[in-house]
Amino acid sequence: MSGPLRTDLPLVLASASPRRLALLQQIGRVPQSVVPAHIDETPHRDEMPREVALRLAVEKAQAVAALHPDAVVLAADTVVACGRRILPKAETEAEARACFALLSGRRHRVYGGIAVRVPSGRLWQQTVMTYVRFARLSAADIDAYIVGGEWHGKAGAYAIQGAAAAFIADINGSYSNVVGLCLHRTENLLRAAFAHEAAAHEAERA
Questions:
Q1: Following DSSP, what letter does each residue of 77-125 receive, concatenated?
Q2: Based on the structure, what is the number of domains in the chain?
Q3: Which one from 8, 70, 77, 170 is the annotated catalytic residue?
C-alpha cells in the first residue's frame, strides 16, 4: 500500500450516488469532480451477477475517462442477487415489494464492482462480495418501509445504512460494499493507481 502519490492528478468519481461520495469523503478521498456515467446498465443474456457488477463498473470508468483523460477515474456498481437472479433498482412500489418477498428470511449476496482508470490507460478492477441475511419480515414491516420511500432507486429496494438496518439479521463481509463502495479495496486500488502514475511520470522525466 506504500508508494509515491501524484497530487497533481485529479480524482473523478464516475457516479451519481451520494452514498459513494460520502464513503470516499469518510476516508479522506475527496474527488475534484463527480461525473455520472450515462451507460446502458441492462444485464447481458446469461450474464452472472458478479460479471454484471464488474462490467458496469469498467464501462462507467471508461466512459468518464473519455471525458476526463487526464484524471484518475473511479467507478463502481452494486448488484444485489438471490441465486442467479439480479434484483432491480426498485423504481415502483410493486418492484420493491417483489424484492422484499425474495429477501425476507433468507441470505443473499451483494456484489460490488470497482474500476480505476488512469491517464496512461491502465485499468485496475476488482469485485467484492458480501453475504447479507434478512430476518423474516411481516407484512407490517414491509408496509412501513414502503411508506418511508427509502427503497426508491436502491438495488434490491433497500439501503443498509437506513431504516432497513432493522431487517438485517447478519452480514458476512464488507459493510461499506453493501452501502455502495468497499472502502478497503477502493483505497488499495487508488494507491496502486496513483503510485503507478507517479512511477510513469518519473520515468518520463529521467
A1: EEEEEETTEEPPB--SHHHHHHHHHHHTTSEEEEEEEEEEE-TTS-EEE
A2: 1
A3: 77
